[in-house]
Design goal:
310 residues, mainly alpha, 14 helices, globular
């Protein structure tokens, strides 16, 4: 018994393992991120927090501010002009996002089946070119095109449709669609480049198998190409929808929200109220509300991402 007990007693210390040391996390990765975080905090984070603070006050930017509570946010829903501006942003989403995605998908289907044709790289470059031109330059060009003696009206007169010529940016019914068409022209190239990059990642054997089975161009597109582009479609929708919601420069240069308020959008309303009419609190509430809307829409579109990509 004594020997057995001694054996067990002697075996116990050998089976005991030292407690593992907790690894100390290295701070080096955080140091790499620190400069970008500082820039973000100084130029975006702090101003955004200040905007939230201003949104609860009635302030003209000069005189002492007075507490307004949620009155400025209530105005976003009750002020007809502000409601109309968000409605105009929804209309622009059709021109900036829906139409470019559909057109780019159609062009992708054509180009992906015509890679052997000469000039394809030039065609892609031309379509993407609007993305590298400054927005103010783009707006100035289209103001000239839409003018009474502009290229659009001259083209209509040339083909015998002069009765349709008008000042496109000066009509209540045509100004917003005219701006929207500029957004379509800008974003088609962006969507096309994204979709073509996605098609390049599809294994050619899938297309070969589909053609051997007798699948036509439409069946090949809807069964192989379109499902494989879910990630690129989600990215394109995110970029284009956000650009539609935060549109400012095109509206400011082309119409300044006119005629009347027919082309006013939330970003322009925030600028106009802060720097023109002295309604800083209301402008801040519009800006914060617009930010929340963009975050919600971005989160909803993100659900389209495939799980292996998200």
């Amino acid at each position: 018994m004594t020997q057995l007990t001694g054996t067990r007693a002697g075996a116990a210390p050998s089976s005991a393992r030292p407690a593992p040391r907790r690894r100390r996390r290295s701070l080096v990765p955080y140091l790499y991120v620190l400069p970008a975080f500082v820039v973000f905090a100084v130029f975006l984070g702090v101003p955004f927090l200040q905007s939230i603070q201003y949104s609860f006050y009635d302030w003209d930017g000069l005189s002492p501010a007075t507490w307004a509570g949620f009155a400025n946010y209530a105005g976003v829903f009750t002020d007809p002009q502000l409601r109309a501006s968000f409605g105009h942003a929804l209309v622009l989403m059709v021109f900036y996002a829906a139409i470019p995605v559909v057109v780019a998908l159609f062009l992708t289907a054509l180009i992906s089946r015509a890679n052997g044709l000469r000039g394809m790289s030039f065609f892609r470059t031309v379509l993407f070119l609007p993305q590298v031109i400054a927005s103010v330059v783009v707006a100035t060009i289209w103001v000239s095109i839409y003018s009474a003696d502009g290229l659009l009206n001259d083209g209509l007169r040339l083909v015998g449709l002069g009765q349709f010529a008008q000042v496109w940016l000066g009509g209540y019914d045509t100004a917003l669609p005219a701006i929207g068409f500029v957004g379509t022209w800008l974003n088609v190239g962006l969507c096309l480049v994204l979709f073509l990059s996605g098609v390049g990642n599809i294994h050619p054997s899938l297309f070969e198998a589909a053609r051997i089975d007798g699948a036509g161009a439409a069946r090949e597109f809807f069964s192989i190409t379109l499902p494989s582009l879910r990630g690129q479609i989600a990215a394109a929708l995110t970029l284009t929808v956000v650009s539609a919601l935060k549109t400012f420069d095109l509206v400011y240069v082309t119409t300044s929200g006119g005629p009347g308020n027919s082309t006013s959008v939330p970003a322009f309303e925030a600028y106009n109220r802060a720097f023109q009419t002295g309604q800083v609190g209301s402008a801040a509430a519009v800006a914060v509300s617009l930010t929340v809307v963009i975050m919600i829409v971005t989160a909803l579109i993100g659900r389209l991402q495939p799980k292996d990509v998200a």
